[in-house]
Amino acid sequence: MVHELAEYERAPDECHLTTDQLTAALFSASPALFGHVAVDERDEPVGFALWFLNFSTWAGVHGIYLEDLYVRPAARGTGAGRLLLATLADICVRRGYRRLEWWMIDWNPAAGFYASIGAQQMSEWVPYRLGGDALRELASQATAANTRSGD
Fold first, then answer.
1. Residue-wise over 16-44: b if at least 16 C-beta within 10 A, else e?
2. pLDDT tens-digit profile of 54-91?
């Protein structure tokens, strides 16, 4: 379904996740990625949520960052997405986490759904991403500094 999500988000060539990678991330001895799957009445998967913990230095507690939420087109409007989000909200409340956060691609029609459950769009924070050559270049500066300092 992750590849279905990539297709939906008009970026199928950018998704390189393999079953082995996902299995390792979810089921290692100390996983940093967690997931939930929504199923229909026939026990067929219709959606998923993949998430990990974040931390608020201001609140001093963890929260959940929802990396991906996807419901197959045929199951949209059935409550599957709401139940996945409700499950994550329940985890937050039970564990004392203060936030459930995610990003959404700007053209996604789910914005109305998110507003209907009380989610607020954040406009004062600007996302940044460092990857590819720029990531490697910055990393090389740390490597060079560690080499000079003897680390």
1. eeeeeeeeebeeeeeeeebbbebeeeeee
2. 999 999 999 999 999 999 999 999 999 999 999 999 99
The single residue listed with the structure tokens 């560690």 is 146
> Phi and psi dihedrals of 66, rounded to 5?
-85, 105
Joined together, the tokens standing for residue 68 give 């991906």
How far is Cα 105 from Cα 87, in angstroms, rounded to an integer? 22
Which tokens is 19 given? 């079953």
pTM of the full predicted structure?
A: 0.88
By annotation, the residues acting in catalysis are 114
pLDDT tens per residue, range 108-151: 999 999 999 999 999 898 889 999 999 999 999 997 777 665 55
How many CB atoms lie under 10 A from the CB of residue 105? 11
Alpha helices in the chain (DSSP H): 2-8, 19-27, 80-95, 111-116, 132-149
Report the sign of the C-alpha dihedral through residues 73, 81, 17, 15, in that order.
positive
Q: Within 10 Å of residue 50's Cβ, how many Cβ atoms? A: 21
